[in-house]
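PROTEIN DESIGN WORKSHEET
SECTION A - STRUCTURE
LENGTH: 372
TOKENS:
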């Protein structure tokens, strides 16, 4: 298969983790005889520095001309600490999602056996967790009208949803549940918010088209508690934009590190693959950022094009790296941790030689990649 992939490394650790995802994709291309070509374009603070615009027109053009987009991370402390800034890096990501119509953000959460002991949560609570979060991505409070009064003392953000915005992601969530454990949990705040009551009504109506799938409801505050009390109760979680943002960061604790969580953002026409973590500016350039979320996002990209064996091989390589403790410091505080690029080297090496990289991993701990 020939795929043109737009690469938007973005800010902070974005470029270094994305580099490792490209390494994995290149190893896959070689192994399975595909041609993947990569075109890089700026976004976020990096793009503001270069052009004054967090999403330059040329970047959007590159995305629209590609089969898929691999996204790194966005954000820079110089904007976080300046609420007055009119131009902000995050606008680049939000405009990208909106312009490309990426209305569904799918975030898988899994407790890897190799990491169970590392989670701050108890083993018997998290073991076996396998959740797929369907977060609405182009509506709600993120995109509703914003207002700041002239005197600067009053501000508001409108949370607006239409029936059709809810319907299209609900269908995706129910279809996903059919291929999983046949359960959808709608997370909302229907005891307080009108927009949540619309979600309940529309999703309940749609559930009738999926008689095999059970639907239940949780208020978001309760869902936040249930997520760490009993995550095994969840199969597919369906929720609006901001609740999904918050719940998915919380869910990452189950996996042991936010550096593991990948995501796919899909729409009618385009698809983008991005780690759920942010730009982690304190780690930039230090080689300590975990590249696995980005590498697993590349696996989701392959799945999107029905390249299942390829995606499975990436996941197997990731599991192997976790099992052998070839991991960055977020997962490996007491041991001999390895750098961002060494984790990527190991994973690419495993993809090329699934049978013998196990023998070579000692070299990695010695600081030598097996694929120099
Ligand atoms: C995410 C991020 C973004 C979001 C930010 C960077 C705008 O936190 O992808 O989860 O809030 O959606
Ligand atoms: Mn987030």
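SECTION B - SEQUENCE
RESIDUE ASSIGNMENT:
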């Amino acid at each position: 298969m020939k795929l043109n992939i737009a690469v938007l490394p973005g800010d902070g650790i974005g470029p270094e983790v994305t580099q490792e995802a490209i390494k994995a994709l290149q190893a896959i291309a070689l192994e399975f005889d595909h041609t993947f070509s990569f075109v890089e374009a700026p976004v976020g603070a990096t793009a503001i520095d270069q052009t004054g615009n967090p999403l330059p027109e040329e970047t959007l053009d590159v995305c629209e001309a590609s089969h898929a987009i691999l996204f790194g991370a966005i954000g820079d402390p110089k904007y976080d600490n300046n609420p007055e800034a009119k131009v902000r890096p995050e606008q680049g990501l939000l405009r990208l999602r909106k312009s490309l119509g990426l209305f569904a953000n799918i975030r898988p959460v899994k407790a890897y056996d190799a990491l169970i002991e590392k989670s701050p949560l108890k083993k018997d609570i998290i073991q076996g967790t396998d959740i797929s979060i369907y977060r609405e991505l182009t509506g709600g409070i993120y995109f509703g009208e914003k207002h700041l009064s002239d005197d600067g003392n009053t501000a508001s953000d409108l949370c607006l949803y239409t029936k059709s915005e809810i319907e299209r992601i609900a269908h995706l969530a129910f279809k996903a549940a059919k291929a999983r454990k046949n359960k959808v949990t709608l997370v909302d705040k229907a005891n307080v918010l009108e927009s949540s009551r619309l979600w309940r009504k529309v999703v309940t109506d749609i559930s009738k088209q999926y008689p095999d799938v059970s639907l239940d409801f949780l208020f978001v505050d309760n869902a936040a508690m249930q997520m760490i009390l009993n995550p095994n109760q969840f199969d597919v979680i369906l929720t609006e934009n901001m609740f999904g943002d918050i719940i998915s960061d919380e869910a990452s604790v189950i996996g042991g590190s936010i550096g593991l969580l990948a995501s796919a953002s899909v729409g009618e026409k385009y698809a983008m693959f991005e780690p759920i973590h942010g730009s982690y500016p304190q780690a930039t350039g230090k080689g300590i950022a975990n590249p696995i979320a980005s590498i697993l996002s590349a696996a989701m990209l392959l799945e999107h094009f029905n390249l299942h064996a390829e995606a499975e091989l990436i996941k197997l390589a990731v599991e192997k790296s976790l099992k052998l403790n070839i991991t960055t410091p977020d997962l490996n505080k007491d041991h001999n941790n390895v750098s961002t690029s060494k984790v990527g080297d190991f994973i690419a090496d495993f993809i090329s030689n699934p049978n013998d990289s196990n023998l070579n991993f000692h070299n990695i701990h010695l600081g030598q990649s097996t694929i120099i």
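SECTION C - NOTES
Residues 119 and 256 are 4 Å apart (CA to CA).
The pocket of 3-isopropylmalic acid (ligand 1) is lined by residues 74-75, 90, 93, 245, 276, 278 (CB under 6 Å).
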